[in-house]
Amino acid sequence: MTSTEMRTEAEDSGPSGYAAARLRLLQEGAQSGPPRRAALAELTDEWLTGLFGAGAEGLRGVSLVAVGGYGRGELSPRSDLDLLLLHDGADSGTVAALADRIWYPIWDLGLALDHSVRTPGEARKTAGGDLKVQLGLLDARHIAGDLGLTAGLRTAILADWRNQAPKRLPELQELCAERAERQGELQYLLEPDLKEARGGLRDATALRAVAASWLADAPREGLADARRRLLDVRDALHLTTGRATDRLALQEQDQVAAELGLLDADTLLRQVYEAARVVSYASDVTWREVGRVLKSRAVRPRLRAMLGGGAKPAVERSPLAEGVVEMDGEVVLARAARPERDPVLPLRAAAAAAQAGLPLSLHAVRRMAAVARPLPTPWPAEAREQLVTLLGSGRPTIEVWEALEAEGLITRLLPDWERVRCRPQRNAVHIWTVDRHLIETAVRASELARRVGRPDLLLVSALLHDIGKGWPGDHSVAGEIIARDVAARIGFDRADVAVLATLVRHHLLLIDTATRRDLEDPATVRSVAEAVGSQSTLELLHALTEADALATGPAAWSSWRGSLVADLVKRVAAVLAGGAPEEPEAAAPTAEQERLAIEAFRTGGPVLALRAQTEPPTEEEPTGDPEPLGVELLIAVPDQPGVLPAVAGVLAMHRLTVRTAELRALDLPDGVEGSVLLLNWRVAAEYGSLPQAARLRADLVRSLDGSLDIAARLAERDAAYPRRRGTIAPPPRVTVASAASRHATVIEVRAHDAPGLLHRIGRALEDASVWVRSMHVSTLGANAVDAFYVTGPKGAPLPAEEAVSVARGLEEMLRG
């Protein structure tokens, strides 16, 4: 059915005819995007015109006006109808009756309606006091009635807006900033609000309002297409959910992608991020221009008065680098600059801007993108130095990098960047897309540059460490190959290329080893030393590890993690310096441990002690209070089955997070027969304060004697946890880490973190008749990666087949 036939049906059948025509239009697969939105607006216009005409016979000085999104002719499937019934004030009673004849049929169909009844004077007065009303009226469009009345209001509103722009535009900018603070940046959110988040549809509308003021205009290239893509996604979201929602929730993304004919949810998010990035960059440029214009208007009269009349003050241009100057708060090209002859100019200009903490002029970037020659391969030394300078400039690097990327200069310099650009990371720990994370890592690395002998290698490795995430397979392995190619292209020599490749390949080595392996085990330290190869590379890898974690998100780094990595680095450095890791020997029990063991044997039950652990001030930060690393929990209990799952369960019940745990059998002093299990654990409270030791002991006693059903208590709490629809965790994976230790078998568990996970694992390992010597727990967001050092009953590593069998059984238990 054609749109003309639909309009005819709507006119002939009233509200029910409109509803049927509307439904048919929305279900037509052949029509989507801007044509469907325009057709829906046109169909709605025809219906409302009919409603208006039926109630306005003989009535003059009244018109029906669409405002906001409907005024722009952009009706999404579940959009509100924003309507203004405009009248000249002559017959308010008749106008009220007309309003009822229009509003009630809309409500009867269940359509959302935002309506008002005003005279032109009232509309202007309301707009003057409410910025949102004024923005909606800027898109006023006549539907029915007195066309002259609508045209007069439009003219007056636009004139008011332009006259009041110096006052209203700063208000609009503040509104946008407040909204961005509340909603976040659309281009990085896993569940973005397409309308309210920064870079979304409201920001695109704000740019239209700025253009209407005639004070400034947004960069037009790509903006209309970005806005169209966001509207298309919102249309698909409305159709798949059947709701008027702008939040692109995780559970809807696959359906929305299918509705749009996209491959998968990641492809959808990447398109959304790309569109949001265009809108965000256009907003940055536009608001900067607005600020410059308003500042110029405020200063110009005073300057002219000082200069004695009409003399025009000269614009100051301050040199920053060859071919690059500062002018009016921006970095622009010098008059003598020749980007078509100077292939290093884009990097030189970017480095100069970042060093000065100034934005790159849009016109300068576009000119360089249009005419600049490509760099030769390998790059000249100056280009490499300018890249390092740019990366080492700290926080200003981000804005400058985004300006280059907006005009395609980054992918021209580094073609491999295309695969990570706007790529989402479906991991709650990561707060950035892959490309932004790489720049954030470089920013963090710049803060650590004085800790290393080769800051250039640190900064470039920070830029490239996750470059392999755009390829299938292990991103560290793929990244090593890409990093070799990029480093050679940039112009590093063979030795430096090898170091950069090592840093990228092993950028997760230190944090993974420190948090998941026994650092007392010589095999652990030797394996890291062999992978790193040299003291200088270890130094760089240490700084890269910290920068990477800090740039990932709050959950990826802590004093505890930092202390473990520092301990590992110290041990590896000793090996690289020519030493050898000492074979671990069973340490003699401390006086406190002996006291607890004797007390546990005497009472026949568990005894425990809690002791806070802190990190002393460092040389870099010699002042301030020590930072807590966790709490050391010492438990002594007579040797008996079920100790590990019982302790893990009690700690989970009290909301204590286990970070590391060691278990050993302690022989009692001479003259006392029997043995005691000594557990030395480091724990931290999830939130709030630590429970009292007496409460922990009481629950541990009850758990060991069977009067406290830990599994049931944890299951009750787990059932009470709020669960998000659609967030299905990947299946757990249990593997045996071969050659990780000569003294024990290392079983690594990767699973969704949940209350009582260690309790369940401990029970399964106990059922498998293996002894847990130590465990190292690492939790990032919703993912737990736990390593268990286990032996057989006689204290030796498990045979290979038995180890695989234990791992397989543990995985089946976790999946069940």
From TrEMBL:
Cofactor(s) of this protein: Mg(2+)
Gene3D superfamilies for this protein: cca-adding enzyme, domain 2 (1.10.3090.10)
Enzyme Commission designation: 2.7.7.59, 3.1.4.-
SMART domains referenced in this protein's UniProt entry, alphabetically: HDc
All residue ranges annotated as the ACT domain in the record: 632-717, 746-816
Residues covered by the HD domain: 434-557
GO MF, one example: [protein-PII] uridylyltransferase activity
Record keywords: Hydrolase, Magnesium, Multifunctional enzyme, Nucleotidyltransferase, Repeat, Transferase
Regulation of activity: Uridylyltransferase (UTase) activity is inhibited by glutamine, while glutamine activates uridylyl-removing (UR) activity.
Region (Uridylyltransferase), start-end ranges: 1-319
InterPro entries: ACT-like_dom_sf, ACT_dom, HD/PDEase_dom, HD_domain, NT_sf, PII_UdlTrfase/GS_AdlTrfase, UTase/UR
Function comment: Modifies, by uridylylation and deuridylylation, the PII regulatory proteins (GlnB and homologs), in response to the nitrogen status of the cell that GlnD senses through the glutamine level. Under low glutamine levels, catalyzes the conversion of the PII proteins and UTP to PII-UMP and PPi, while under higher glutamine levels, GlnD hydrolyzes PII-UMP to PII and UMP (deuridylylation). Thus, controls uridylylation state and activity of the PII proteins, and plays an important role in the regulation of nitrogen metabolism.
Family annotation (HAMAP family): PII_uridylyl_transf
Name of the protein described by the UniProt record: Bifunctional uridylyltransferase/uridylyl-removing enzyme
Gene encoding the protein: glnD
